[in-house]
């Protein structure tokens, strides 16, 4: 008898691994923008804040980027910031990055996109 639960793969995690392989060699801002494009295609109805949160988490988990790098990149390329709906960019970025760093990497339902 085998335990299939340990062998299960989440589709979103597999997509993330494949995507990160294609991002090798890009600077962090380009990585962020590429992830943003990919995620907007996959989730066209997702709010910019949710995508920023997911991108920050992916950059930390799969890209190995530091909090400082992710904070800087989000302040330059964040989707919600580009939308013009954020009143305090510095607070938004700090809150979003802190939230992303606190999430469990396997808990995809936090963003409302359960697997």
Describe this structure as you would to a colleague.
The chain has helices spanning 11-22, 28-42, 48-61, 67-77, 79-83, 89-102. With 115 residues, the protein is mainly alpha-helical.
Write a brief caption for the model.
The chain is mostly helical and 115 residues long. It is built from six helices and no strands. It is globular and about 35 Å long.
- List low-confidence stretches: 1-7, 109-115
Global morphology? globular
Query: Tell me, what is the CATH class?
Result: Mainly Alpha
Query: How many E-type strands?
Result: 0
Predict the CATH topology.
Answer: Methyltransferase, Methionine Synthase (B12-binding Domains), Chain A, domain 1
Q: Overall pLDDT, averaged?
A: 79
CATH architecture: Orthogonal Bundle
Provide a count of the helices: 6
| Proportion of residues in helical segments | 55-70%
Query: Which structural class do you get from the secondary structure elements?
Result: mainly alpha
The H/E string reads HHHHHH
Calculate the terminal CA-CA distance, rounded to whole Å: 25 Å
Report the major sheet.
Answer: none
**What percent strand?**
under 5%
Radius of gyration: 14 Å
Whole-number total of structural domains: 1
